[in-house]
Amino acid sequence: MDDKIKLLQQYIDESNNIVFFGGAGVSTESGIKDFRSVDGLYHEKFKYPPETMLSHSFFIDHTEEFYDFYREKLNSLNIEPNITHKYLKDLEDSGKLKYIITQNIDGLHEKAGSKNVLLLHGTVYQNTCMDCGKKYNAEAVFNSKGIPRCECGGIIKPDVVLYEEGLDDETVSKSIEAISNADLLIVGGTSLVVYPAASFIRYFRGKHLVIINKDSTQYDSMADLVINDKLGDIFSKLK
Fold this sequence. Notes:
With 239 residues, the protein is α/β, with parallel strands linked by helices.
């Protein structure tokens, strides 16, 4: 493993346009459950499957039940960034890391101080009234009871991409451009099975592709370096 850490450090040292593409595994060490691992949300027992409860149609048809689940499982207000978030912030400050592209909605990269974060699936920190468009912060939703409503009476919806909803076109374009221009792409904490986000790494044309994930992914054969370990264990050894 030490040889792999050394090689990753070498790649980072030699690169000046790094992009980090991350998923749920980035935040699990902060205490946020992922979806697909053995102890993830998909393996818990609920009245409905999590992917159903986080779908657009469920939000429309069962709004109160959606919010019961959302408030219980996706509240990251009191959760702090971990080693990975902090390392990436420092790497951005050094000028080497140009973008973080994340599938996470927990806001921990921003909480760590990272500036150039592309939010593929939105964020719990922004919410919008479906009727008048007024914006609300995360506290307005997580500290509410039942269905959170605007002053105008409209339902407040989180600015997160639910199942059955499309990604934001501008964010997709920026992400593909960032990956296309990168000389080093580090993919971390994602099983690379959620589309279309997972397919973005096909746009990489740079020097080195690194995949760090506890389990193998379908893109491992494309990578110059694959490390099957916890992100925190890896990033804590980098300088």
